[in-house]
Amino acid sequence: MSELASEAMESEFGTVAGWTEEAVAALGPEYAVPAGCRGSGSEAALRWLADALAVRPGERVLDCGAGVGGPAGWLAAERGVRPVCAEPMAEAVHAGRALFRLPSVVAVSQSLPLTVDAFDVAWCLGVLCTTEEKAALLDELRRVLVPGGRLGMLVFVAEGELAPPLPEGNSFPTPDELDGLLAGAGFTVTATTRADLSDSPAEWSRRADEVDAEVERRHGEDPRWVEAQEQSGRVGRLLGSGALVPRLLVAVAG
Ligand SMILES: C[S@@+](CC[C@H](N)C(=O)[O-])C[C@H]1O[C@@H](n2cnc3c(N)ncnc32)[C@H](O)[C@@H]1O
Questions:
Q1: pLDDT tens string 183-203
Q2: Distance from residue 51's CA to the centre of ligand 1 (Å)
Q3: Is the pTM of this model over 0.85?
Q4: Which atom of ligand 1 is nearest to the CA of 67?
Q5: Which CATH superfamily is domain 7-253 in?
């Protein structure tokens, strides 16, 4: 085990990240962004965050828990920035470097090898619910942002009773817990909305599906693929029940 909360997460975010890099290499570079958005999912969600964060060309941007780098690659192409990616799974960092050529570091977000006040903007998408160390993660984000710096988040929030089986290693905050964590770390929320994770152009969704099919064709028999599918299926079922809600927010560092 490395830094993550469960072996199932290591399959989902590590092994499958490496397989995703392999599939994009086979299919073509136009598959990289849809394949690389694991968790943030929809283009509309990324666009809402980029607009609400008012990201300007040349600003210093951090993507925390960047995964395979799709959201950071999308932001680089859309807003003229060069995000730094921090991500604990080495396979995902390798994939992100190969697919998007962005500066990347293997690191957990609660202990970032980055200096104080280094960034104007940070985003952290689908990561808070993957660790119990939520306060430490938000403290680190506050530390590396300049005062007045902007934080964008996608957080899966438990708004109702979550029926088992739950995805292994996840811990979903309630709305009150999330508000308390952000305030405790010195952030003031300035905008929030419920995300629609299915709101991507048809071409984007088709490419994401093709990448999944290519990974399954190559590794569908591997127990780690089965395990990763089970994990994402459990999250999908909770989202479908309405008890788990994907929330986008922008907050300003005090
Ligand atoms: C649902 S994925 C989201 C990936 C990416 N942000 C996206 O939206 O496509 C969650 C990511 O958080 C990473 N992660 C898990 N625990 C973390 C931690 N303590 N600090 C930073 N990242 C973490 C996982 O390795 C995984 O890449």
A1: 999 999 999 999 998 889 999
A2: 22
A3: yes
A4: 27
A5: Vaccinia Virus protein VP39 (3.40.50.150)
